[in-house]
Amino acid sequence: MLSLLAFLIMIGVLITIHEFGHFIFARIFGVKVEVFSIGFGPPIFKWRGKETVYQIAAIPLGGYVKMYGEDSMTEPIQGETEKEAYQDPRSFAAKPRWQKMLIAFAGPLFNIILAVILVAAAYMVGIFEPKYMKEPVVVGYVQPDTPAAKAGIKPFDKIVAVDGKPVKNWKQFTVEISMKAGMTVNVEIERNKQKKLLTLQIPQDITKQPIGISPLIPPKLGDIIPGSPAEKAGLRRGDIILAINGKPVKSWFEIVHILSKINEPKPVSLMVKRGKQIFTIKVTPQFNKEIGRYVIGISPVYDAQIKRYGFVEAFEKSIQKNIEMTVLLYNFIKDIVTGEKSFQEIKNNLGGPISIAKYAGGALESGLGNYLFMTGFISLQLGYLNLLPIPVLDGGLILILLIESIIRRPLPEKAKEWLAYIGFALIGTLMIFAIFNDFLRILQ
Protein backbone atom coordinates (compact mmCIF):
# COMPACT_ATOMS: atom_id res chain seq x y z
CA MET A 1 0.00 0.00 0.00
CA LEU A 2 2.87 2.36 0.86
CA SER A 3 4.58 1.58 -2.47
CA LEU A 4 1.37 2.36 -4.38
CA LEU A 5 0.85 5.63 -2.50
CA ALA A 6 4.50 6.66 -2.99
CA PHE A 7 4.27 5.80 -6.70
CA LEU A 8 1.02 7.75 -7.25
CA ILE A 9 2.37 10.85 -5.49
CA MET A 10 5.66 10.66 -7.42
CA ILE A 11 4.16 10.05 -10.85
CA GLY A 12 1.41 12.63 -10.21
CA VAL A 13 3.95 15.35 -9.41
CA LEU A 14 6.20 14.48 -12.36
CA ILE A 15 3.35 14.40 -14.89
CA THR A 16 1.79 17.61 -13.54
CA ILE A 17 5.08 19.52 -13.77
CA HIS A 18 5.80 18.15 -17.26
CA GLU A 19 2.40 19.08 -18.63
CA PHE A 20 2.46 22.43 -16.81
CA GLY A 21 5.63 23.25 -18.77
CA HIS A 22 3.76 22.71 -22.05
CA PHE A 23 0.71 24.55 -20.69
CA ILE A 24 2.49 27.68 -19.44
CA PHE A 25 4.55 28.11 -22.61
CA ALA A 26 1.44 27.62 -24.74
CA ARG A 27 -0.29 30.36 -22.76
CA ILE A 28 2.79 32.62 -23.00
CA PHE A 29 2.62 32.37 -26.81
CA GLY A 30 -1.15 32.88 -26.85
CA VAL A 31 -2.19 29.32 -27.75
CA LYS A 32 -5.61 28.22 -26.53
CA VAL A 33 -5.37 25.09 -24.36
CA GLU A 34 -8.50 22.97 -24.60
CA VAL A 35 -7.63 20.15 -22.15
CA PHE A 36 -5.04 19.78 -19.37
CA SER A 37 -5.09 16.10 -18.37
CA ILE A 38 -3.18 14.19 -15.69
CA GLY A 39 -3.47 10.57 -16.84
CA PHE A 40 -5.03 8.93 -19.87
CA GLY A 41 -8.40 7.37 -20.53
CA PRO A 42 -11.82 8.38 -19.15
CA PRO A 43 -11.70 11.28 -16.66
CA ILE A 44 -12.55 10.47 -13.04
CA PHE A 45 -12.56 14.11 -11.98
CA LYS A 46 -12.67 17.30 -14.05
CA TRP A 47 -13.57 20.95 -13.90
CA ARG A 48 -13.85 23.71 -16.51
CA GLY A 49 -11.85 26.90 -16.29
CA LYS A 50 -12.28 29.98 -18.46
CA GLU A 51 -11.39 28.09 -21.66
CA THR A 52 -9.58 24.94 -20.48
CA VAL A 53 -10.93 21.67 -19.12
CA TYR A 54 -8.71 20.37 -16.26
CA GLN A 55 -9.04 16.68 -15.52
CA ILE A 56 -7.56 13.66 -13.73
CA ALA A 57 -7.97 10.52 -15.82
CA ALA A 58 -8.10 6.86 -14.87
CA ILE A 59 -4.70 5.64 -16.13
CA PRO A 60 -1.93 7.48 -14.19
CA LEU A 61 0.92 6.63 -16.59
CA GLY A 62 1.16 9.93 -18.43
CA GLY A 63 -0.79 13.02 -19.34
CA TYR A 64 -1.35 15.53 -22.11
CA VAL A 65 -2.11 19.12 -22.97
CA LYS A 66 -4.52 19.38 -25.91
CA MET A 67 -3.99 22.66 -27.76
CA TYR A 68 -6.38 24.23 -30.24
CA GLY A 69 -5.16 23.61 -33.79
CA GLU A 70 -2.61 21.01 -32.69
CA ASP A 71 -3.76 18.25 -35.05
CA SER A 72 -6.22 17.39 -37.77
CA MET A 73 -8.82 16.40 -35.14
CA THR A 74 -9.24 20.03 -34.00
CA GLU A 75 -12.84 21.16 -34.07
CA PRO A 76 -13.30 24.64 -35.63
CA ILE A 77 -14.95 27.28 -33.46
CA GLN A 78 -18.57 27.94 -34.41
CA GLY A 79 -18.74 29.88 -37.67
CA GLU A 80 -15.19 28.93 -38.73
CA THR A 81 -14.00 26.50 -41.36
CA GLU A 82 -11.19 24.06 -40.56
CA LYS A 83 -8.79 26.21 -42.61
CA GLU A 84 -9.76 29.31 -40.66
CA ALA A 85 -9.28 27.39 -37.41
CA TYR A 86 -5.69 26.67 -38.35
CA GLN A 87 -5.16 30.35 -39.21
CA ASP A 88 -6.63 31.54 -35.91
CA PRO A 89 -3.86 33.33 -33.95
CA ARG A 90 -4.85 31.28 -30.88
CA SER A 91 -4.18 28.08 -32.83
CA PHE A 92 -1.03 26.03 -32.26
CA ALA A 93 -0.80 25.44 -36.01
CA ALA A 94 -0.70 29.19 -36.70
CA LYS A 95 2.34 29.79 -34.49
CA PRO A 96 5.89 30.05 -35.92
CA ARG A 97 7.92 26.85 -35.68
CA TRP A 98 10.35 28.25 -33.08
CA GLN A 99 7.44 28.85 -30.71
CA LYS A 100 6.10 25.34 -31.33
CA MET A 101 9.56 23.90 -30.55
CA LEU A 102 9.76 25.87 -27.30
CA ILE A 103 6.29 24.66 -26.29
CA ALA A 104 7.38 21.05 -26.96
CA PHE A 105 10.71 21.58 -25.18
CA ALA A 106 9.10 23.16 -22.10
CA GLY A 107 7.75 19.87 -20.67
CA PRO A 108 11.15 18.11 -20.51
CA LEU A 109 12.79 21.37 -19.39
CA PHE A 110 10.44 21.66 -16.41
CA ASN A 111 11.24 18.04 -15.44
CA ILE A 112 14.97 18.78 -15.53
CA ILE A 113 14.49 21.95 -13.44
CA LEU A 114 12.32 19.97 -11.01
CA ALA A 115 15.12 17.38 -10.69
CA VAL A 116 17.56 20.09 -9.57
CA ILE A 117 15.03 21.48 -7.06
CA LEU A 118 14.08 18.06 -5.61
CA VAL A 119 17.67 16.85 -5.22
CA ALA A 120 18.57 20.18 -3.55
CA ALA A 121 15.57 19.74 -1.24
CA ALA A 122 16.79 16.21 -0.44
CA TYR A 123 20.19 17.59 0.58
CA MET A 124 18.51 20.22 2.78
CA VAL A 125 16.11 17.73 4.41
CA GLY A 126 19.00 15.31 4.88
CA ILE A 127 20.14 12.18 3.09
CA PHE A 128 21.99 9.12 4.30
CA GLU A 129 25.71 9.15 3.58
CA PRO A 130 27.89 6.09 4.22
CA LYS A 131 29.93 6.47 7.39
CA TYR A 132 33.07 5.23 5.64
CA MET A 133 33.15 8.40 3.48
CA LYS A 134 34.63 10.21 6.50
CA GLU A 135 36.95 7.37 7.44
CA PRO A 136 40.61 6.81 6.35
CA VAL A 137 41.06 5.29 2.88
CA VAL A 138 41.66 1.69 3.93
CA VAL A 139 41.18 -0.68 0.99
CA GLY A 140 38.83 -3.59 1.68
CA TYR A 141 38.89 -5.23 -1.74
CA VAL A 142 40.79 -4.93 -5.01
CA GLN A 143 38.98 -6.12 -8.12
CA PRO A 144 41.20 -8.23 -10.42
CA ASP A 145 42.32 -6.81 -13.78
CA THR A 146 41.56 -3.19 -12.84
CA PRO A 147 43.87 -0.14 -12.70
CA ALA A 148 44.21 -0.56 -8.92
CA ALA A 149 45.23 -4.22 -9.24
CA LYS A 150 47.74 -3.37 -11.99
CA ALA A 151 49.18 -0.60 -9.83
CA GLY A 152 49.89 -3.11 -7.05
CA ILE A 153 47.30 -1.91 -4.52
CA LYS A 154 46.32 -4.70 -2.09
CA PRO A 155 43.57 -5.26 0.48
CA PHE A 156 44.17 -3.44 3.80
CA ASP A 157 46.49 -0.88 2.17
CA LYS A 158 45.88 2.63 3.48
CA ILE A 159 46.00 5.37 0.83
CA VAL A 160 47.38 8.56 2.39
CA ALA A 161 48.15 10.83 -0.59
CA VAL A 162 47.44 11.36 -4.30
CA ASP A 163 50.18 13.16 -6.25
CA GLY A 164 51.63 14.39 -2.98
CA LYS A 165 48.30 15.81 -1.73
CA PRO A 166 47.19 14.21 1.56
CA VAL A 167 43.78 12.50 1.60
CA LYS A 168 42.25 12.00 5.03
CA ASN A 169 39.10 10.11 4.04
CA TRP A 170 37.25 8.39 1.21
CA LYS A 171 35.38 11.57 0.33
CA GLN A 172 38.60 13.52 -0.32
CA PHE A 173 40.08 10.57 -2.19
CA THR A 174 37.00 10.29 -4.44
CA VAL A 175 37.16 14.00 -5.28
CA GLU A 176 40.90 13.85 -6.09
CA ILE A 177 40.51 10.80 -8.34
CA SER A 178 37.50 12.32 -10.14
CA MET A 179 39.49 15.46 -10.94
CA LYS A 180 42.32 13.43 -12.52
CA ALA A 181 40.28 11.29 -14.93
CA GLY A 182 42.42 9.93 -17.77
CA MET A 183 45.67 10.84 -16.00
CA THR A 184 48.47 8.85 -14.37
CA VAL A 185 48.92 9.68 -10.68
CA ASN A 186 51.30 8.74 -7.88
CA VAL A 187 49.48 7.12 -4.97
CA GLU A 188 51.19 6.93 -1.58
CA ILE A 189 50.12 3.99 0.56
CA GLU A 190 50.89 2.56 3.99
CA ARG A 191 51.39 -1.21 4.13
CA ASN A 192 52.64 -3.00 7.27
CA LYS A 193 53.70 0.38 8.71
CA GLN A 194 55.84 1.09 5.65
CA LYS A 195 55.11 3.73 3.01
CA LYS A 196 55.22 2.96 -0.71
CA LEU A 197 54.66 5.03 -3.85
CA LEU A 198 52.60 3.38 -6.59
CA THR A 199 51.65 4.58 -10.09
CA LEU A 200 47.92 4.45 -10.83
CA GLN A 201 46.31 5.04 -14.23
CA ILE A 202 42.89 6.69 -13.77
CA PRO A 203 40.32 5.67 -16.43
CA GLN A 204 38.87 8.42 -18.62
CA ASP A 205 35.34 7.66 -17.41
CA ILE A 206 35.38 6.28 -13.85
CA THR A 207 31.58 5.93 -13.89
CA LYS A 208 31.94 3.32 -16.62
CA GLN A 209 35.33 1.85 -15.69
CA PRO A 210 36.08 2.14 -11.94
CA ILE A 211 39.63 2.06 -10.60
CA GLY A 212 38.76 -1.19 -8.80
CA ILE A 213 38.93 -0.64 -5.04
CA SER A 214 36.27 -0.77 -2.36
CA PRO A 215 36.25 0.39 1.28
CA LEU A 216 36.83 -1.90 4.22
CA ILE A 217 33.36 -3.07 5.18
CA PRO A 218 33.18 -5.52 8.12
CA PRO A 219 31.80 -9.02 7.42
CA LYS A 220 28.63 -8.25 9.37
CA LEU A 221 25.23 -9.26 8.03
CA GLY A 222 22.56 -6.69 7.31
CA ASP A 223 19.30 -7.71 5.63
CA ILE A 224 18.57 -11.40 5.07
CA ILE A 225 16.39 -11.96 2.00
CA PRO A 226 13.11 -13.66 3.01
CA GLY A 227 12.92 -17.27 1.84
CA SER A 228 16.61 -17.33 0.91
CA PRO A 229 19.04 -20.15 1.79
CA ALA A 230 20.56 -17.85 4.46
CA GLU A 231 17.20 -17.40 6.21
CA LYS A 232 16.42 -21.12 6.01
CA ALA A 233 19.84 -21.92 7.52
CA GLY A 234 19.12 -19.62 10.48
CA LEU A 235 21.39 -16.65 9.76
CA ARG A 236 20.29 -13.37 11.37
CA ARG A 237 20.92 -9.67 10.97
CA GLY A 238 23.98 -8.69 12.99
CA ASP A 239 25.75 -12.05 12.61
CA ILE A 240 29.47 -11.72 11.86
CA ILE A 241 31.06 -14.16 9.38
CA LEU A 242 34.50 -15.21 10.65
CA ALA A 243 35.36 -17.87 8.05
CA ILE A 244 34.01 -19.62 4.94
CA ASN A 245 34.91 -23.29 4.44
CA GLY A 246 37.68 -22.85 7.02
CA LYS A 247 39.19 -19.77 5.33
CA PRO A 248 39.19 -16.66 7.60
CA VAL A 249 37.56 -13.48 6.26
CA LYS A 250 38.12 -9.94 7.52
CA SER A 251 35.95 -7.90 5.16
CA TRP A 252 32.62 -8.10 3.35
CA PHE A 253 34.23 -8.18 -0.07
CA GLU A 254 36.23 -11.28 0.86
CA ILE A 255 32.85 -12.95 1.43
CA VAL A 256 31.64 -11.70 -1.95
CA HIS A 257 34.84 -12.88 -3.66
CA ILE A 258 34.62 -16.40 -2.22
CA LEU A 259 30.88 -16.85 -2.78
CA SER A 260 31.08 -15.50 -6.36
CA LYS A 261 33.22 -18.52 -7.31
CA ILE A 262 30.51 -21.01 -6.36
CA ASN A 263 29.12 -22.74 -9.45
CA GLU A 264 27.07 -25.57 -7.94
CA PRO A 265 24.49 -26.04 -5.15
CA LYS A 266 27.08 -27.47 -2.76
CA PRO A 267 26.76 -26.69 1.01
CA VAL A 268 29.03 -23.90 2.28
CA SER A 269 30.33 -23.96 5.87
CA LEU A 270 30.16 -20.58 7.63
CA MET A 271 31.80 -19.84 10.99
CA VAL A 272 29.50 -17.31 12.61
CA LYS A 273 29.80 -15.04 15.65
CA ARG A 274 26.53 -14.02 17.28
CA GLY A 275 27.01 -12.03 20.44
CA LYS A 276 29.46 -14.08 22.50
CA GLN A 277 28.65 -17.34 20.72
CA ILE A 278 30.74 -18.78 17.87
CA PHE A 279 29.27 -21.66 15.86
CA THR A 280 29.14 -23.19 12.38
CA ILE A 281 26.21 -23.06 9.94
CA LYS A 282 25.93 -24.85 6.60
CA VAL A 283 24.16 -23.00 3.78
CA THR A 284 23.35 -24.41 0.33
CA PRO A 285 23.53 -21.65 -2.32
CA GLN A 286 20.64 -21.20 -4.75
CA PHE A 287 20.98 -20.16 -8.40
CA ASN A 288 19.57 -16.71 -9.14
CA LYS A 289 18.48 -16.43 -12.78
CA GLU A 290 18.35 -12.62 -12.75
CA ILE A 291 22.03 -12.14 -11.89
CA GLY A 292 23.18 -15.46 -13.33
CA ARG A 293 25.01 -16.98 -10.34
CA TYR A 294 24.60 -18.83 -7.04
CA VAL A 295 23.69 -16.74 -3.99
CA ILE A 296 22.75 -17.34 -0.36
CA GLY A 297 20.70 -14.13 0.14
CA ILE A 298 22.71 -11.87 2.45
CA SER A 299 23.75 -8.21 2.43
CA PRO A 300 26.18 -6.18 4.54
CA VAL A 301 25.48 -3.63 7.25
CA TYR A 302 26.20 -0.15 5.95
CA ASP A 303 26.74 2.36 8.72
CA ALA A 304 25.27 5.64 7.53
CA GLN A 305 24.40 9.03 8.97
CA ILE A 306 22.00 11.79 7.94
CA LYS A 307 23.83 14.73 6.40
CA ARG A 308 22.10 18.11 5.90
CA TYR A 309 23.30 21.04 3.80
CA GLY A 310 22.49 24.75 3.65
CA PHE A 311 20.50 26.31 0.81
CA VAL A 312 23.41 27.40 -1.41
CA GLU A 313 25.53 24.28 -0.84
CA ALA A 314 22.49 22.05 -1.42
CA PHE A 315 21.88 23.59 -4.86
CA GLU A 316 25.59 23.39 -5.72
CA LYS A 317 25.62 19.69 -4.83
CA SER A 318 22.33 19.15 -6.67
CA ILE A 319 23.68 20.63 -9.90
CA GLN A 320 26.83 18.52 -9.58
CA LYS A 321 24.80 15.35 -8.87
CA ASN A 322 22.41 16.02 -11.77
CA ILE A 323 25.37 16.45 -14.12
CA GLU A 324 26.73 13.09 -12.91
CA MET A 325 23.34 11.43 -13.45
CA THR A 326 23.10 13.03 -16.90
CA VAL A 327 26.46 11.52 -17.88
CA LEU A 328 25.37 8.11 -16.59
CA LEU A 329 22.11 8.24 -18.57
CA TYR A 330 23.93 9.43 -21.70
CA ASN A 331 26.46 6.59 -21.45
CA PHE A 332 23.67 4.04 -20.92
CA ILE A 333 21.72 5.20 -24.00
CA LYS A 334 24.93 5.44 -26.06
CA ASP A 335 25.90 1.89 -25.11
CA ILE A 336 22.45 0.63 -26.17
CA VAL A 337 22.62 2.43 -29.53
CA THR A 338 26.20 1.28 -30.24
CA GLY A 339 25.47 -2.28 -29.10
CA GLU A 340 28.00 -2.21 -26.25
CA LYS A 341 25.33 -3.32 -23.78
CA SER A 342 24.04 -6.86 -24.08
CA PHE A 343 20.34 -7.69 -24.07
CA GLN A 344 20.72 -9.15 -20.56
CA GLU A 345 22.33 -5.93 -19.26
CA ILE A 346 19.52 -3.85 -20.76
CA LYS A 347 16.94 -6.21 -19.27
CA ASN A 348 18.50 -6.01 -15.81
CA ASN A 349 18.46 -2.19 -15.89
CA LEU A 350 14.98 -1.73 -17.36
CA GLY A 351 12.06 -1.39 -14.98
CA GLY A 352 8.40 -0.55 -15.46
CA PRO A 353 5.79 0.97 -13.15
CA ILE A 354 5.91 -1.96 -10.72
CA SER A 355 9.67 -1.56 -10.20
CA ILE A 356 9.32 2.21 -9.83
CA ALA A 357 6.53 1.72 -7.25
CA LYS A 358 8.66 -0.79 -5.34
CA TYR A 359 11.69 1.51 -5.21
CA ALA A 360 9.52 4.55 -4.44
CA GLY A 361 8.01 2.76 -1.44
CA GLY A 362 11.46 1.68 -0.24
CA ALA A 363 12.82 5.21 -0.65
CA LEU A 364 9.90 6.71 1.30
CA GLU A 365 10.37 4.16 4.10
CA SER A 366 14.05 5.10 4.39
CA GLY A 367 13.30 8.82 4.74
CA LEU A 368 11.85 11.88 3.04
CA GLY A 369 15.29 12.93 1.76
CA ASN A 370 15.80 9.65 -0.08
CA TYR A 371 12.28 9.84 -1.53
CA LEU A 372 12.88 13.39 -2.80
CA PHE A 373 16.22 12.32 -4.25
CA MET A 374 14.68 9.37 -6.10
CA THR A 375 11.80 11.51 -7.40
CA GLY A 376 14.36 13.98 -8.71
CA PHE A 377 16.30 11.18 -10.40
CA ILE A 378 13.15 9.86 -12.11
CA SER A 379 12.20 13.43 -13.13
CA LEU A 380 15.61 13.91 -14.76
CA GLN A 381 15.24 10.65 -16.69
CA LEU A 382 11.70 11.58 -17.75
CA GLY A 383 12.94 14.94 -19.03
CA TYR A 384 15.79 13.54 -21.10
CA LEU A 385 13.89 10.49 -22.39
CA ASN A 386 11.11 12.76 -23.65
CA LEU A 387 13.73 14.60 -25.71
CA LEU A 388 14.67 11.46 -27.63
CA PRO A 389 13.90 11.93 -31.37
CA ILE A 390 11.08 9.38 -31.36
CA PRO A 391 7.71 10.32 -32.89
CA VAL A 392 4.94 10.92 -30.27
CA LEU A 393 7.58 12.10 -27.78
CA ASP A 394 8.42 15.80 -27.43
CA GLY A 395 11.81 15.17 -29.03
CA GLY A 396 10.06 13.62 -32.04
CA LEU A 397 7.90 16.72 -32.51
CA ILE A 398 10.96 18.96 -32.22
CA LEU A 399 12.74 16.83 -34.85
CA ILE A 400 9.79 17.11 -37.25
CA LEU A 401 9.67 20.89 -36.74
CA LEU A 402 13.43 21.12 -37.39
CA ILE A 403 13.02 19.14 -40.62
CA GLU A 404 10.16 21.41 -41.69
CA SER A 405 12.32 24.45 -40.91
CA ILE A 406 15.09 23.07 -43.15
CA ILE A 407 12.84 22.10 -46.08
CA ARG A 408 10.68 25.22 -45.51
CA ARG A 409 7.37 23.44 -45.84
CA PRO A 410 5.20 21.16 -43.67
CA LEU A 411 5.66 17.41 -43.92
CA PRO A 412 2.71 15.63 -45.56
CA GLU A 413 0.00 14.65 -43.09
CA LYS A 414 0.29 11.03 -44.24
CA ALA A 415 4.01 11.02 -43.36
CA LYS A 416 3.25 12.44 -39.91
CA GLU A 417 0.61 9.74 -39.37
CA TRP A 418 3.04 6.96 -40.25
CA LEU A 419 5.71 8.47 -38.02
CA ALA A 420 3.16 8.57 -35.19
CA TYR A 421 2.32 4.88 -35.76
CA ILE A 422 6.02 4.00 -35.61
CA GLY A 423 6.46 6.06 -32.44
CA PHE A 424 3.47 4.43 -30.73
CA ALA A 425 4.77 1.00 -31.74
CA LEU A 426 8.23 1.71 -30.29
CA ILE A 427 6.97 3.21 -27.03
CA GLY A 428 4.26 0.57 -26.68
CA THR A 429 6.73 -2.26 -27.21
CA LEU A 430 9.12 -0.74 -24.68
CA MET A 431 6.33 -0.36 -22.09
CA ILE A 432 5.09 -3.91 -22.61
CA PHE A 433 8.64 -5.23 -22.28
CA ALA A 434 9.26 -3.18 -19.10
CA ILE A 435 6.00 -4.37 -17.47
CA PHE A 436 6.70 -7.97 -18.54
CA ASN A 437 10.18 -7.61 -17.03
CA ASP A 438 8.57 -6.44 -13.76
CA PHE A 439 6.36 -9.52 -13.63
CA LEU A 440 9.33 -11.79 -14.33
CA ARG A 441 11.18 -10.23 -11.37
CA ILE A 442 8.16 -10.89 -9.13
CA LEU A 443 7.89 -14.51 -10.27
CA GLN A 444 11.62 -15.08 -9.76
- Give a quick account of the main beta sheet: strands, pairing sense, barrel closure: 6 strands, antiparallel
What is the CA-based Rg, rounded? Answer: 27 Å
Structural class, please?
A: alpha+beta
- Total number of helical segments? 13
Q: What distance lies between the first and last C-alpha atoms, to the nearest angstrom?
A: 21 Å
Overview of the molecule:
Its EC number is 3.4.24.-. This is Zinc metalloprotease. By secondary structure, the chain is of the alpha+beta class. Among the domains are: 125 residues, no CATH class; 85 residues, PDZ domain (Pdz3 Domain, Roll); 69 residues, Roll (Pdz3 Domain), CATH 2.30.42.10. The protein has 13 helices and 18 strands. The strands form 6 sheets. Strands 4, 5, 6, 7, 8 and 9 form a 6-stranded antiparallel beta sheet that branches. Helix 1 packs antiparallel against helix 3. About 1% of the residues have low confidence.
Topology (elements, then pairings):
Elements: H1 2-28, E1 33-48, E2 53-67, H2 82-87, H3 97-125, E3 127-130, E4 137-142, H4 147-151, E5 158-162, E6 165-166, H5 170-179, E7 184-191, E8 194-201, E9 213-215, E10 221-224, H6 229-233, E11 240-244, E12 247-248, H7 252-259, E13 268-274, E14 277-283, E15 286-288, E16 293-295, E17 298-300, E18 304-307, H8 311-338, H9 343-349, H10 353-366, H11 368-385, H12 394-407, H13 413-443
Antiparallel strand pairs: 1-2, 3-18, 4-5, 4-9, 5-6, 5-7, 7-8, 10-17, 11-12, 11-13, 13-14, 15-16
Keywords: Hydrolase, Membrane, Metal-binding, Metalloprotease, Protease, Transmembrane, Transmembrane helix, Zinc
InterPro entries: PDZ, PDZ_6, PDZ_sf, Pept_M50_Zn, Peptidase_M50
Cofactor: Zn(2+)
